[in-house]
Design a protein that fits this description.
Blueprint: H1 2-11, E1 23-24, E2 27-28, H2 37-51, H3 74-86, E3 95-99, H4 111-124, E4 132-136, H5 142-150, E5 156-159, H6 164-173, E6 176-180, H7 183-190, E7 195-199, H8 204-207, E8 216-220, H9 254-264
Parallel strand pairs: 3-4, 3-6, 4-5, 6-7, 7-8
Antiparallel strand pairs: 1-2
Helix pairs in contact: 1-2, 3-6, 4-5, 4-9, 6-7
């Protein structure tokens, strides 16, 4: 929040990042190719602080020094606990969240692939209490969530009415969060919950998780679409009729995703509901 306010002050309230992320006070700031946007934002904020007479931010700009944090309120945590309790999910029940949606259709994975992975996870994450699968998304994504749920053998909880804070509380409760390149997956990082996300057109170096690479794994497609010069191409604004020709994310195999989950197994703990993971 503070970082955003500083950047707004420097930019005169501009919210369109490409027009201001590399400039400050009429001079260009360093912008190395493929730099993570968080680093660019921190550098811009640091320059702004100096302009305002404060000390610059300490470098290097790393997730360890500047971790991503979003703390749900007590009310939001209570909402999540009550929602889970109504479904028979107590504090001891392991939970996996799948957030399949994204702001651009080209980023989406196959719904059947999500169903198949969810079924595999209920076997892979064995324990005295069966794992519960939760599908999250927006109201407009409800039909996609229902399609995924129909292919999952175990009981599934669908949540499409959560606020950002309530969603954060749900993600904090999970052992693992899976999805594509989307805001909720970054929100999972901010809860300290291990995550796995599938990337295609967007560059992991610039838009990947701001957290431990061991605990936040990216499965990046290597399938260059016929009409794109490279992978990742960086373009997400495809028209509906163009999507069939840009299947990079959809071509990611289920086996790749499950192999990545296995690498995350040592980090799959759970939140007890008291803000501590065990």
């Amino acid at each position: 929040m503070i970082l955003s306010s500083i950047c707004d002050l420097i930019s005169g309230g501009a919210r369109h990042w490409p027009t201001w992320r590399g400039f400050h006070g009429g001079r260009a700031l360093p912008y190395p190719p493929h730099e993570h946007w968080t680093v660019s934002a921190l550098r811009l904020a640091s320059a702004g602080l100096e302009t305002l007479g404060y000390a610059a931010l300490e470098e290097p700009f790393t997730p360890e020094r500047y971790p991503l944090r979003f703390i749900p309120t007590a009310e939001e945590q209570g909402w999540a606990a009550e929602r889970l309790s109504k479904e028979g999910i107590d504090a001891q029940t392991p939970v996996v969240v799948i957030h399949a949606g994204a702001g651009a259709a080209v980023k989406l994975w196959r719904t059947q692939a999500w169903s198949d992975c969810a079924n595999a996870l209920t076997t892979l994450l064995t324990g005295p209490i069966p794992v519960r699968i939760i599908l999250t998304g927006s109201k407009s994504e409800r039909s996609m969530m229902e399609e995924i749920a129909r292919g999952i053998a175990a009981p599934v909880l669908l949540v499409s009415d959560a606020t950002v804070g309530q969603l954060a509380a749900l993600l904090a409760r999970a052992q693992l969060v899976l999805g594509v390149d989307s805001g909720p997956l970054h929100l999972a990082v901010a809860q300290g919950t291990p995550s796995l996300r599938i990337y295609g057109p967007t560059d992991v170096r610039m838009y990947g998780p701001w957290g431990s690479a061991a605990q936040h794994v990216v499965v990046a497609s290597t399938q260059r679409c016929p009409g794109c010069p490279v992978i990742p191409c960086g373009r997400i604004d495809f028209r509906p009729e163009e999507l069939a020709a840009h299947p990079c994310v959809r071509l990611v195999a289920e086996q790749e995703v499950l192999a990545a989950v296995r690498k995350l197994m040592p980090y799959l703990t759970r939140d007890t509901g008291a803000g501590q993971r065990t």
